[in-house]
Amino acid sequence: MTQAIEYRDAVPEDGRELDAMAQAVWLETFGHSGSAEDIGLYLAKAYGPNGDLIRHLNDPDHRFRLALQNEAIVGYAKLSKPWLPREHVGPRARQLSQIYIVGSARGSGVANTLMDWAIETARAESADELLLTVWEHNPRAMRFYEKLGFMHIGDFEFPMGNQIDRDLIMRLPL
User: Fold this and answer.
1) What burial class does residue 153 get, using C-beta atoms within 10 Å of its C-beta: 0-12 exposed, 13-18 middle, 19+ buried?
2) What is the pTM of this model?
3) Which residues make beta-bridge pairs with 94?
4) How far is the C-alpha of 95 from the C-alpha of 80, rounded, in Å?
């Protein structure tokens, strides 16, 4: 029997499972988009015991919210202090750095619940805008963000290994 989805804040002890889940979703979504070398370089930077994701679990500039089903992580959102170029960031902005959902949980409301958490948390921290980036070749994600009211305000050069991808910077006034 499928259990209801539960939500909670992440703790450092979630690191290994969260890292494995995020890496799998990243590969499923973006693994076709570059050379094996560039993908390997990116994965080494972003994931693993010394990767950004696990380091950020211990960094107060980042907050994580998990979605769990049958005690397994099926989604997460990562809310951060903005790391985008200053010309796109207002003084009270927050940034949704990541929102990843495993394939089996897509369409179940997890993304909406995690996005609601990100928006509510940003507002509670006195943010007046929520920013995010989305790869230009991810139309499903772009449609999701546009339905929520995010608007394209600029472009960001996203380094994936030695390859530079174009991400759209999107903004939601809060």
Assistant:
1) middle
2) 0.93
3) 130
4) 5
Closest CA to 20 of 102, 85, 99: 102
Closest CA to 150 of 114, 96, 102: 96
Give me 138's structure tokens: 């991810």
d(CA 173, CA 56): 25
Helices (H), 32-150: 36-46, 52-57, 110-124, 139-147
Residue of 42, 3, 47, 55 whose CA lies nearest to 21: 47
Residues β-bridged to residue 72: 69
Is the distance from CB of 72 to CB of 24 less than 8 angstroms?
no
What is the C-alpha separation between 121 and 104, in angstroms, rounded? 26
Q: Please report, in angstroms and rounded to a whole number, the separation of the first and last CA atoms in the chain.
A: 39
Three-class SS of 62-77? EEEEEEEECCEEEEEE
- Sheet of 6-9, strand order: 6-9, 62-69, 72-80, 93-101, 129-135, 163-173, 151-160
**Mean pLDDT in order along the chain per 10 residues (174 residues):** 85 96 94 93 95 95 96 96 88 95 87 97 96 95 96 95 95 97
